[in-house]
Amino acid sequence: MRLHFLTPALLLLGACSLESEPNPPPSTRFVYPSGVAFWRPPTAGGPSASNGYLFVANANFDNCYDSGSLVALNLDTLSTQVNGQTVMVPRLGSTLPDSTLAFEDLATADESLVQIRSFAGELGLWVNPASGLPRLFVPSRAEGNNLNAVDVSLDANGAPVLNCVQGGVDCRNGALSLTDDIPASLSEAGRPDLPRAPSPIGVTVDAASGTLYVTHSEAADSPAKSSTNFENYLATVKLDNPTRDTLGFIPLSPEGYLYGGSDSVTVGAGYLYVTGRNFVAGINGTVGGNFVLRLVDKNEPGIILEPALQSVFSIREARAARVVPRPVTAAERAARPNFVRERLYMLARGPDTLLTVDFEYDAVPGSAATQPFFRVVSAVPLPDGVSDMQLIERTPGTSNADTNILAVTSTGDSAVSLYDEALGQVVAQVPLVNDLNQTSNPSQAFGLTVDNPAGTNAARLFVTNFGDGQVSIVDIPDLARPQDARVVAKLGMQQQRDPNQGTSVCQEN
């Protein structure tokens, strides 16, 4: 038998046919949703007139598609069919439906989606005072370790329009890398390589200072890939100019401090509170986090403090944190004009706990804050895998922290726990699990944002269910009774999973 060999022309044709076709992320459903943010325009007329807009970062965790994505939803345009009737997303404070509504087809318009790198983390939202419109920030842990910045506008019909800050709708092109092409001006004395922030994960907007803070879960070695000279940084960039020109790095492990990964930042009057987590240390594999909490002086960022929390309460690492002001009496203010009292809420792991810690110090404007006194107020057990946390104020704008409700997501049991500080206990756990086997198809409640408008005795939570590809809407119809919270609706089609491998099924349903 004679063998037939391909001619050069046929070889070229075969090579072209092997190239993968473009495979953009879908616009009709979520794909491993992670970060989430909410916005209602001030001109919308409040929650009784508008449901507002939801922004969701899709992590594309299984790399089923060419990229991750960031999508915008006008919640007033979503509809579903119930008993042959068209039903819209109920307004906050209205009568709740008898059963959970399912809005499966998101039908996102082309202009309401931009592509970003995969493995997205948290999603931060800043309202630009010049335009009154949001700018979104989301880090990606894929190649480039990018910080994606996306501007939001509204068309004549109120539909959200997304555009990358650097232009276009593919934010992978020209996105700010936190590990590559770092300006030489940022070099540090005694370190052989430039600072960088591998595996960026958390973003915190500080509108007062015009700064965005970015954490990264993996410590940076120097030189890169050497597994030596580790450091963790708090990356900074200006909200109105998120480019390499305004990029900065605050070292979190000065001499005598152990290095580690970081997760979350919350902004106090005089300090930034930064939580620590496990990280991957190059050739050494996964190493336990070496700090739980560090404080960075806002005016003198070279001053790093580490409260000895682990000597008071044994914990392995931390996740989300929120800080609120506490009341100061007139007598205290007269004696100490710059006296600050703050309460820090922090999620800890190993064991999973909601820690409440009070701090007291003096914050002189333009100068370094005094060294704070701290006291652990409470430690409340929570389900395994605590992830994100949001503060719900019964009376928004007041500094009486005893009225707060803390909403916490947990990936272990995929639920939202509600802690009522007035009672000092968890008063509700709202399950978000899907109807499939949790071993092969876990829901994994992850990201969290809240609609907590002033003057409304109700609140709404939006929770990304990372594993099943949906966003749950959880309403608290009466803030005096957070135990009545329940799931109102689920957005997006449930993600199909391979029961043998536990990974997603890439084909569209």
Proportion in helices: under 10%
Q: What integer is the average pLDDT?
A: 89
**Which radius of gyration do the C-alpha atoms yield?**
24 Å
Strand content: 35-45%
Work out the oligomeric state of the chains in this entry. Answer: single chain
Largest sheet: 5 strands, mixed
InterPro entries: Haem_d1_sf (IPR011048), WD40/YVTN_repeat-like_dom_sf (IPR015943)
Protein name: Lipoprotein
In words, what does this structure look like?
The protein is mainly beta. The protein has a domain at 193-381. The chain contains 3 helices and 34 strands. It has helices at 8-18, 309-312, 330-335, and strands spanning 33-39, 53-58, 68-74, 79-82, 85-88, 101-103, 113-116, 124-127, 134-139, 146-154, 160-164, 176-177, 200-206, 211-216, 233-238, 248-251, 261-267, 271-277, 279-280, 286-287, 293-297, 304-305, 317-325, 339-349, 353-362, 373-381, 386-393, 404-410, 415-420, 425-431, 445-451, 459-465, 470-476, 486-491. The protein has a 5-stranded mixed sheet with strand order 6-34-33-32-31, with no helix packed on it. Strands 8, 9, 10, 11 and 12 form a 5-stranded antiparallel sheet that branches. The chain has a 4-stranded antiparallel sheet with strand order 1-2-3-7, with no helix packed on it. A hairpin with a 4-residue loop joins β13 (200-206) and β14 (211-216). The model is unreliable at 1-18 (pLDDT under 50).
Task: Give a brief description.
InterPro entries: Haem_d1_sf, WD40/YVTN_repeat-like_dom_sf. The protein has three helices and 34 strands.
